[in-house]
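Course assignment 3, question 2. Fill in each field.
Student: A.L.
Task: Predict the tertiary structure for the chain below.
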Amino acid sequence: MTHLSDHKIPAPLQRRQFASDNYAGICPEAWAALQDANSGHAPAYGEDPWTARACDLLRELFEIDCDVFFAFNGTAANSMSLAAMCQSYHSIICHSLSHVETDECGGPEFFSNGTKVLLVEGENGKISLDAVRHTVERRTDIHYPKPRVLSVTQATEMGTVYGVEELDAIQETARQLKLRLHMDGARFANAAAALGVAPKEITWKAGIDVLCFGGTKNGMPVGDAVIFFNHELAKEFEYRCKQAGQLASKMRFLAAPWVGMLESGAWLKRAGHANRCARMLESGLRDIDGVELLMPTQANAVFVRLPGAVASGLRDRGWRFYNFIGSGGVRLMCSWDTTEDDVAAFLNNVRALCQSGAGESAKQIHA
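Answer field:
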């Protein structure tokens, strides 16, 4: 007979990794806020003071009255918000590499009762406005799923960032084509830190109707905020949350980390740190023969092509990272807790493997 005591919880990874910013733990500001919330009783289902405070802080951050809801994760936030922006006979336009298309298991289509997702291309993970226009205008008959929403990812799945002027151009195109604007902001904090502008400049002032603001990748334990700048679209959204299993009974534990991150400014500080580590990593990789950078590093991601033997050697040495769709290489993510020593250790291993001949043997194989 197997006893519960026979199952040991494995020790966490001692080395910080570059596979995903989801690997990182909870940052101190979020952890302290959770501890503060974990005292005594509080009303359930979002009627607690932490949820009210988090909503107010988000309104202050974006400098506008907006409707705020909390979901457990980005897939639910994106799927529910897109469903609120569409009817089932509509379509959603997004980049072919976007999380909405590649990593949500059909969630947007499921929650919207079948809304079609239409894909467009564009360099460096950013949508091509010409492609958007073509997708909308190529057919207008009743047999075609009517385009209704344009979804952009900030920062993109390729680690790039839409600047203010780019978002203004997207807003104008959406206005002309009568499209609503949705922003998948799983790494919105990293984009804001990279751009150095007020959050309002890259959201509602750029025409964004709904923002899914990611907390998990920014150092929180769980939870994303769904922020409606368009109040009309938020009507009865609380029912969507409940039906989808996203109404937390102990909502204070979803909301409290937001209070800690926003009151302290850690949401931006921690994202800026991750971005700086990514730039340091990019700079070091650029100087190593046999390594090819694939994308500009603008947020906290570095996309690089490593010789096959080097990639294998790194994994043999305990490093974890993902091969990534569309890049032909690997993605290296920096987190709120990445250190300069982590970056240096990884670079030293890449350099040693390339110098040992692993890189050269890989070149010969490809030749």
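Instructor remarks: DSSP finds 14 helices and eleven strands in the chain. Residues 4-21+267-366 form a domain with the Aspartate Aminotransferase, domain 1 fold (CATH 3.90.1150.10).
Grade: pending
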